[in-house]
Amino acid sequence: MSERMPMVAGNWKMHKTAGEGAILVQRIEERVIRLWDRVELVVCPPFTALKSVSTVIELDRLQIGLGAQNVHWEDEGAFTGEIAPRMLVELRCGYVIVGHSERREFFGDTNETVNKRIHAVFDNGMVPILCVGESLAIHEAGGTESFVRGQVRAALEGVTTEQAERLVVAYEPIWAIGTGRTPTPEMANDIARSIRATVGALHGPGVAQSVRVLYGGSVKPENARMFLSEPDVDGALVGGAALEADSFADIAESAL
């Protein structure tokens, strides 16, 4: 068995107001108390709900991590609509999702800007959850492994070995996100192993073994255990199923 602690992170995307987010994290807590020392749980609300969720986590002393869904790479400046890393730190965010396919597809994220965000997250003491994954066309052409390896290498350009040890990578095939389609667990594990090997080529086998690789893309309570039982899959980045406390908790229990 791997010594890496499993992680289940919920990406709420553009769902939940501040009040709804506070209620949801309380309901999650009611279901997952017994998992706290065995599975690392993280919730990633929209920016407007970070403060309320952070407050509930602090006041109720919940063992649930807080993450943001994106961040700018500058500390401050004339970047209307953006969020600086130190703003997230002040809200006690420990994680930031970086390079999600929706950010790449709809909002212009590139390998270069993903790398800048990775550096900003690390430089401010947080941990990036780096998202990588291929389109349906690349998948059908058999180019998944080389494409994902390239994304990982580009994202980690200039990252130190000490930083890389803390990295979390989420493999999310774009064609599986929100579609109900998924790769086989064996295919997901093969890509997770390839991601680990890529990190190892950059920073050595010890770092490769410390990096957690999550699977994402239509993860549900019904299929979570199949993916999370694979040896190189260390958890899940969950979308729609993270919006209900019971389904999120059921997925978390599948990581045991």
Give the helices and strands as they follow along the chain. EHEHEHEHHEHHHEHHEHEH
Biggest sheet overview: 8 strands, parallel, barrel
- Give the distance, in angstroms, between the N- and C-terminal Cα atoms: 11 Å
- Beta content: 5-15%
Q: Quickly count the helices.
A: 12
Neighbour order of strands in the largest sheet: 1-2-3-4-5-6-7-8
Q: Which regions contain 5 or more consecutive residues with pLDDT less than 50?
A: none
Structural commentary:
- This protein has about 260 residues and is of the alpha/beta class.
- It has a single domain, classed as TIM Barrel, CATH 3.20.20.
- The protein has twelve helices and eight strands.
- The protein has helices spanning about 20-30, 45-60, 85-90, 100-105, 110-125, 135-140, 145-155, 160-165, 185-205, 205-210, 225-230, 245-255, and strands at about 5-10, 40-45, 65-70, 95-100, 125-130, 170, 210-215, 235-240.
- The chain has an eight-stranded parallel β-barrel with strand order 1-2-3-4-5-6-7-8, surrounded by five helices.
- α3 (about 85-90) links the parallel β3 (about 65-70) and β4 (about 95-100).
- α1 (about 20-30) packs across α2 (about 45-60), α1 packs across α12 (about 245-255) and α7 (about 145-155) runs parallel beside α9 (about 185-205).
